[in-house]
């Protein structure tokens, strides 16, 4: 059912489906009243350009970007509370134990997690909430939130280009780059699990696609009679980004190139 209403049916149906899903007592969207923001999750391999794309896409927008917790060491230039909240493993695990994360996962030897509380508050304010996380965590958001989370997989043009970007960023040792690339192969093969797939080859085009996807999702919350020509154009573009157009062969082509 995921994404079907946006693409084929009346927009109200999206809300109806969302409300008829079982809602657990700690489901963050269950507490949201009135108009609320979109929960948009960017996922994809390390080094594909999620952060670069996100900064350009969100420039000038009043959205809430979720600052993750991590147990990894801060890189040179990273500031606690800006790139991440850097914590020791014991503190991270205690928060996880208390149910303080919307999702959390281990990635190449470190823990990463999305603190749940600020997200709930932002959605209640009606702000769009943006997560930028790896694939295992994105799958957790998908199973917890269902259609209420808009999941976007950012695809590299090839594994060779992904290696070039990770190497060029110069934040990892060669050994850690190899570990990230090994994980990337598995992550790319999961791309069909997410609603949209945006290929980050040309950055400007990819930014335009993120904008169109966001506009289409906002339009889908309103009656069709209120859609502008720009909304309709965005919806048409968003349809082309839908992951149902992906084949296993497409994914293998990226992983093997
Ligand atoms: N479209 C693009 N074309 C060429 N280089 C790009 C493109 N997008 C991003 N890059 C470069 O790729 C490198 C990795 O980008 P970035 O740090 O944004 O990736 P990321 O997916 O956020 O990584 P991580 O998941 O590890 O945080 C950077 O050096 C960035 O400048
Ligand atoms: N599951 C989660 N993954 C996260 C979170 N915050 C960041 N990430 C992802 O981890 C990898 C590695 O990040 P790096 O900063 O060490 O390069 C990358 O894919 C991030 O997107 C999170 O809260 N949860």
UniProtKB/TrEMBL annotation:
Keywords: ATP-binding, Cytoplasm, Kinase, Nucleotide-binding, Transferase. One of its GO terms (molecular function) is kinase activity. HAMAP family: Guanylate_kinase (MF_00328). It comes from Deinococcus xinjiangensis. It catalyses: GMP + ATP = GDP + ADP. PROSITE patterns: GUANYLATE_KINASE_1, GUANYLATE_KINASE_2. This is Guanylate kinase. Its EC number is 2.7.4.8. It is an enzyme of class 2 (transferase).
């Amino acid at each position: 059912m995921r994404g079907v209403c946006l693409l084929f049916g009346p927009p109200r149906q999206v809300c109806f489906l969302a409300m008829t899903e079982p809602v657990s007592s700690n489901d963050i969207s269950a507490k949201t009243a009135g108009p609320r923001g979109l929960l948009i999750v960017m996922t994809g391999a390390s080094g594909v350009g999620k952060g670069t794309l996100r900064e350009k896409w969100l420039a000038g927008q009043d959205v809430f970007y979720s600052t993750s917790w991590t147990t990894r060491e801060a890189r040179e230039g990273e500031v606690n509370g800006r790139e991440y909240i850097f914590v020791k493993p014991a503190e991270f695990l205690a928060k996880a134990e208390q149910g303080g994360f919307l999702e959390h996962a281990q990635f190449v030897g470190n823990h990463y997690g999305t603190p749940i509380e600020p997200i709930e508050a932002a959605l209640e304010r009606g702000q769009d909430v943006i997560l930028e996380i790896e694939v295992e965590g994105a799958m957790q958001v998908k199973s917890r939130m269902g259609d209420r989370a808009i999941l976007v997989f950012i695809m590299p043009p090839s594994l060779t280009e992904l290696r070039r970007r990770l190497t060029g960023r110069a934040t990892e040792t060669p050994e850690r780059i190899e570990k990230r690339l090994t994980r990337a192969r598995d992550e790319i093969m999961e791309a069909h699990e997410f609603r949209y797939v945006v290929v980050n080859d040309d950055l400007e085009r990819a930014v335009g696609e993120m904008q169109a996807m966001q506009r289409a999702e906002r339009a889908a919350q309103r009656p069709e009679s209120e859609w502008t020509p720009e909304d309709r154009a965005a919806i048409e573009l968003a349809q082309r980004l839908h992951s149902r157009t992906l084949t296993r062969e497409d994914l293998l082509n990226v992983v093997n190139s």
